[in-house]
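# step 3/5: fold
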Amino acid sequence: MITKLLIANRGEIACRIIRTARAMGVATVAVYSDADAKALHVRQADESVHIGPSPAAESYLVGAKIIAAAKQTGADAIHPGYGFLSENADFAQAVLDAGLIWVGPKPASIRAMGLKDAAKQLMRAAGVPVTPGYDGSDQSVERLTKEAEAIGYPVLIKAVAGGGGKGMRKVDAPADFAAALESCRREAKASFGNDEVLLEKWITSPRHIEVQVFGDAHGNVVHLFERDCSLQRRHQKVIEEAPAPGMDAATRETICAAAVRAAKAVDYEGAGTIEFIADASEGLRADRIFFMEMNTRLQVEHPVTEEITGVDLVEWQLRVASGELLPKRQEELSIYGHAIEARLYAEDPAKGFLPSTGRLEHLNISPHFARVETGVDRGAEVSSYYDPMIAKLICHAEDRDAAIAALRQSTGHVQVWPVKQNAWFLFRLLDLPAFKSGTMTTGSIAENIDTLTGPPSPPKLSLALYAEDLLYADAWGNNYARQSGIGGFRLNAEHKQSVRLLVDGVEVEVDPAFDGDDPAFDLTIQGNSGKLYFCDGATFHIQPYRHDGTGQASAADGAIIAPMPGKVIAVDVAEGQAVTAGQRLLVLEAMKMEHALTAPFDGVVEGLSVSAGAQVQVEAVLVTVVPASTEE
């Protein structure tokens, strides 16, 4: 058995691995960058080693530094977690060549499944159904355009080395193909160092179904049933559950058997996931489920499988990597109840899901309703260098309805400030009719995006009570009335004035005499700068409005500012150029994603201050659009 394990990762997955390793009596070593010097995973591990600057390319993605850290601390094994180097066959081989145990599949298996085009060809040979499309070696624009027309629109462009939703574009019409291909290739090159793509037919009513597989070094492969990951935004999973709703026994047997064949075709060892796309226009049917790709690592959503099977997948990984047989045979694995997971991110759904960075000054994620997997605690910094995940919330119950109810309660009780987060979006999403009925598709979020992302409003009662508190304080000599422009308040007199407040920096007028039927808020926290109200997963910072200028500054109309630190990867306009409302001006890469910044109205470009390749800080003015002159 492994005695000391180095975890080549960070955040919640590093903390998750440490927990199991400790329970098994295995010592742990954490690695960390400058940004993570005080991170939770560093504090939880038995030892830690600094491996470089904050950018992942200079720390977590440098295999030589990680192997050196293992040698330095006497670790005999390396667990890659997910992301970073977890599916890098060269790194896996380097670990083995260094005389260390690699907690993952053989390098050859990673290579076999690492490129989507080669993997599809391999799966065809193994008798696994694949999605119709093109995965040939001719990557010319002319050939790809011709193949897209032959497949029939809409088509999906996918990076052959892609993963995590990156390097994917849906194209609805021929006129959009060239631009989508260019964007896809650029993102794929930046993320994976490979800009080759394949094409697939866009599936009607698509459901994302995946099967957890596990193999050992003795030729045994089992499946641990399926998960449904259909609720996605921009190909990124948001809600995952197991088992898949609407999956009958016969279809489950067929898809899980295909997954086992796929794993055996590459002599698979360790934890892996076979991902399928299902045409659910007539429900889940075995003849309408197609192989998409294999993830040769542990998945972010592995806890839902653990909850319904009672299996610790990280423990299985460590045992298999140590040469042991799989702990259970296929006939010993069963499904118990239903589990659902939600990903809590530091992002603002009301502003296009822009990632949010900063210090978690207040953080309370109730453990009473959910299993919480996190890599942060109160006071931690959410950095712009890495994925902005705060936590995963997982609920398990006897049936799906009960699991949904528990998770909705959990997301509704999330308390985070001042970093923006998506709990209120998740709270609404779990109440989406298509999801509750189990008929959701990968397009359900996009189809309901306005309803799901409309900015939440604080309960009117909470505003009224706060306003009343301010007026009551004024009766005892507080100077609020003078500063806010109201006056004449007397105890026991009828309320006649409205009160101006700042709600998250926006001025609002409130009637303190509100007597409507409004739902109660969860909790308030009094501070020197106002109060925090938490309700249905949302956080509201409420302050008195003052004439002295207290409040948040905003950019002038037409000023395009950087929503976060990042790198400008494309500039599409020039100084003095006329633009129309919604036209793309430039593209900012941050938090591993591309963000297109567009013109707010028709006008002319002035003050273009950046070029492609420039690194910019949050709130930096990048370009200004001024209204076109109407003078003749």
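# step 4/5: annotate
The mean pLDDT is 88.
# step 5/5: archive (pending)
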